[in-house]
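Reply to thread "Modeling small-molecule complexes from scratch"

Following up on the discussion above, here's a worked example others can learn from. I took a protein sequence and the SMILES for zinc ion and predicted the complex. Inputs first:
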Amino acid sequence: MYSKDVYELAHQARAKNSKKWVAEKFRSTLEDYNHCCAVCGEHNPFALQLDHVEPTSKGGEDTPENWQVLCGPCNNVKNNIHGMARIPARQPSTNDQDKVAAHVAFRIACQALREEQK
Ligand SMILES: [Zn+2]
């Protein structure tokens, strides 16, 4: 993890060059997350996305504490659910069956949370 000062500097850089800022914040979060999806361990770099744990549309902040790495399919399942805890980093998975099992379990957990929020 970086110190708060580094993020302050990055915030200043963001004002100057927003595209560079996005690349930098994604890079540091990817490192925190072992370059894989927090749910299923997918590690194809083209599939990985920066997710806001608490969606910005629900008042979540655009700060490192609110970022996690998900793959596209897991991010689609989570969508705009709010009140979910930040998912801890895991190790990359090369086992497709494990990934499918993780997707199914995550989908069920998300559906249950959605039902609670109705
Ligand atoms: Zn995933």
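What I'd highlight from this example: Helices lie at 4-16, 18-32, 72-78, 96-116. Residues 90 and 112 are 23 Å apart (CA to CA). Questions welcome below.
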